[in-house]
Specification:
- It is a single chain.
- The chain has about 230 residues and is α+β, with helices and mostly antiparallel strands.
- The protein has two domains: about 150 residues, Four Helix Bundle (Hemerythrin (Met), subunit A); about 70 residues, 2-Layer Sandwich (Nonspecific Lipid-transfer Protein, Chain A), CATH 3.30.1050.20.
- Helix content is about 50%, strand content about 10%.
- The strands form two sheets. The protein has a four-stranded mixed β-sheet with strand order 4-3-5-6, with helices on one face.
- β1 and β2 form a beta hairpin.
- α1 runs antiparallel to α5 and α3 packs antiparallel against α6.
- The protein is globular and about 50 Å long.
- Keywords: Isomerase, Pyruvate.
- This is Mycothiol-dependent maleylpyruvate isomerase.
- InterPro entries: DinB/YfiT-like, Maleyloyr_isom, MDMPI_metal-binding.
- GO terms for molecular function: isomerase activity; metal ion binding.
Length: about 230
C-alpha cells in the first residue's frame, strides 16, 4: 500500500483548527430539535455524530499522550459504544462544551508532536506516520461535517486542505481491490490499491475525497476507464 509523506503536519493542524472552528460555529446554533435530527448516516442523529467526534478526539489525544510519554499506544477507537449513546442524547450545551474541550485537549497534544520520527498503529491493518496524525482528525471533521447536513451536495473545504486527506484516504482506507487513479485540478495523481488502476476520476480534491470516502458524485468530476 502506498505511503503518505508526513510533510503536511503544520498545514494539516491549521486546517484541523479551521474545521473545528467551523463545526463549533455551526453547532452552537442547534436547537434540541436540531441535535435530534437525522443525518446522512443511517440511524445517527447529529448528537451521535457529535459524540463520535468527541470520542475520536479523546482517543487520538490518548494516542498522542502515550507517544509523548514513550509508551506504545494502545490503539485508536472512535466507534460508538454505550457511553457515546448516552452522550448523544445529552443536552446540546453539554455536547457543545465536550466538542470544544476535547478538541482543545487534542490540539495541545498535537502541537508537541512535529518532527517526531516513526509510525504508530491505530488498529490492526492501519499503521501510519506519526506526522500524519492530524490527518486522522482532519478527515473526521471534514466528512462528519458533511454528514451533519443531509441536504449538502459537496464538501465545504478548500482543495489545499482536502488534498492530503485524499492521499491519506487512498493510501490507508480505500478498497485495495478497486484500484483507482485520482487526478486533482492541480495535477496531483493519487492511486489506490496495489494493482494498476482500471478507472480514473479527475476533478477538485474535495470532490474526489467525497467520492472516494462516501461514494457521492459531485459536479466537476470526470470519469474514464484506463
Amino acid at each position: 500500500m502506498p505511503s503518505v509523506p508526513g510533510e503536511h503536519f503544520d498545514s494539516s493542524l491549521h486546517a484541523v483548527r479551521e474545521q473545528t472552528h467551523t463545526l463549533l460555529g455551526r453547532t452552537i446554533a442547534y436547537s434540541p430539535e436540531d441535535w435530534a435530527a437525522p443525518t446522512r448516516l443511517p440511524g445517527w442523529t447529529r448528537g451521535h455524530i457529535a459524540a463520535h467526534l468527541i470520542k475520536g478526539a479523546r482517543g487520538l489525544a490518548q494516542v498522542c499522550r502515550e507517544l509523548l510519554e514513550g509508551v506504545s499506544p494502545g490503539g485508536y477507537d472512535s466507534s460508538l459504544g454505550r457511553d457515546c449513546e448516552l452522550l448523544a442524547i445529552s443536552d446540546g450545551l453539554h455536547l457543545q462544551i465536550e466538542l470544544d474541550t476535547s478538541a482543545g485537549e487534542l490540539d495541545q497534544l498535537l502541537t508537541q508532536l512535529p518532527g517526531r520520527d516513526g509510525e504508530v498503529s491505530l488498529r490492526p491493518g492501519l499503521r501510519i506516520s506519526i506526522n500524519d496524525l492530524p490527518l486522522v482528525r482532519l478527515r473526521e471533521l471534514m466528512l462528519h461535517g458533511f454528514d451533519l447536513e443531509p441536504e449538502a451536495s459537496r464538501l465545504d473545504v478548500d482543495d489545499d486542505a482536502a488534498a492530503p486527506v485524499l492521499a491519506f484516504e487512498a493510501a490507508h482506507l480505500a478498497d485495495e481491490n478497486d484500484p483507482l487513479e485520482l487526478v486533482t485540478l492541480e495535477g496531483r495523481v493519487v492511486r489506490t490499491g496495489v494493482r494498476p488502476p482500471h478507472r480514473r476520476a479527475a476533478g477538485p480534491a474535495s470532490a474526489l475525497l467525497l467520492w472516494l470516502a462516501r461514494g457521492i458524485e459531485s459536479e466537476g468530476l470526470e470519469y474514464d476507464k484506463i
